[in-house]
Specification:
This protein is an alpha/beta fold. It has ten helices and 13 strands.
Length: about 375
């Protein structure tokens, strides 16, 4: 998170939905994730920041609606449109949909800033932001202007899309941005005919995203099938997450639960970790070894801080069926842990938990190089 980033009043978490390439269904994922988060009882907002191709108004069937505004202290305050329990704002409400939006980077960034800061949001648990595709001025400006919690990357299985989402992932890992990546959503992962819902046809290929996920060490959060009704839902303004009986409903529900669980871990790692009292080390005393370049006292203090950080996030992991246990701090400053994911030995789940633990540990002890899982 950028130290100078602005916090939006009343907004607890900002989640960016990003892709390197257009046409991968990023807006559809953003809309359905927002509804699925709202279905958990959370207060949710959705910003359509795809300034060159706003589609959220169409996905919610409100393309002809007008946003109300009022003056307060000499400033125009916007009121978001509400539908399906989601507070919505889009640049599409303010421009002619039949004309091209020819704006340079600074003008577009300033317009988007107003959507974020000049809208009366109220209390929001999760603000989902539908970014434009690519890695340009808009993406960087939003990432640096506001206190962004995390991002989710969206891609299809084709190699061209994967190459572009790799660049997007690299952007969020840059030192001047450094926004946590919750994981990857594979859209159009396979084709499923309505009359044969159990059949899967991998018409765009299979397994290509696994390499990307391994390289960046983030999980594939879910795979969304290519179904005709998903395209139709966008045309009639009724996202499929509203339909509990649809084949994609449990997938989007699971995605929302994973997002909530990961954000809990990230949030716990950002809280102040108290190390005023020494942490009792019981099960792993034999693993506290002395390095020739670091005396035993220093290493013991580091181990205490690491365990304190791990204990800080454990309740959040346990609440969602996971757990973590400290094993060892090596001479190379690598923390080794045992992880149990919410779905047992599922590599995606444990990888997600490890990322959250690593954030907490490195925040407590900046000298830590990495967190590794042992089996």
């Amino acid at each position: 998170m950028i130290p100078s980033a602005e916090k939006i009043k009343g907004v607890k978490n900002i989640i960016l939905i990003s892709s390197g390439k257009g046409g991968v269904g990023k807006s559809t994922i953003a809309a359905n994730l927002a509804i699925s988060l709202s279905n958990t009882g959370a207060k949710v907002a959705l910003i359509d920041a795809d300034i060159y191709g706003p589609s959220i108004p169409n996905l919610f069937g409100i393309e002809n609606e007008q946003i109300s505004a009022f003056e307060e202290d000499g400033k125009t305050v916007l009121m978001p449109f509400e539908k399906y329990g989601i507070k919505l704002i889009s640049i599409g409400f303010f421009v002619d949909p039949s004309k091209a939006l020819v704006w340079r980077g600074p003008m577009a960034s300033n317009a988007l800033r107003q959507l974020f800061t000049d809208t009366r949001w109220g209390e929001i648990d999760y603000m989902v932001v539908d970014l434009p595709p690519g890695t340009g001025d808009i993406q960087i400006s939003i990432a640096q202007m506001f206190e962004v919690t995390a991002t989710i990357l969206v891609s299809t299985p084709q190699q061209l899309a994967i190459a572009d989402v790799r660049r997007a992932a690299d952007m969020f890992c840059q030192k001047n941005i450094e926004i946590p990546i919750l994981g990857l959503v594979e859209n159009m992962a396979y084709f499923t005919p309505a009359e044969l819902p159990n059949n899967k046809y991998y018409i765009f290929g299979k397994g290509g995203l696994d390499i990307l996920a391994q390289d960046f060490r983030f999980p594939i959060l879910c795979q969304i099938p290519l179904v005709q009704s998903l395209a139709e839902s966008g045309a009639n303004g009724s996202p499929l997450a509203l339909n509990d009986d649809h084949i994609t409903a449990p997938i989007f529900k699971d995605l929302a639960q994973k997002v909530i669980a990961q954000i809990k871990v990230l949030s716990s790692s950002e809280s102040q970790i108290s190390t005023d009292k020494p942490v009792e080390i019981v099960a792993n005393k034999t693993n506290i070894q002395t390095n020739s370049t670091m005396d035993g006292k220093t290493k013991t203090e580091m181990v205490q801080k690491v365990i304190a950080a791990i204990e800080q996030v454990r309740p959040y992991l346990q609440a969602d069926g996971g757990d973590v246990a400290f094993v060892e701090l090596t001479d190379d400053m690598i923390v080794k842990v045992r992880l149990h994911g919410a779905c047992g030995s599922c590599p995606h789940s444990t990888a997600t938990l490890k990322d959250g633990v690593e954030v907490a540990v490195k925040r407590a002890v900046p000298e830590i190089v990495a967190v590794e899982q042992v089996f």
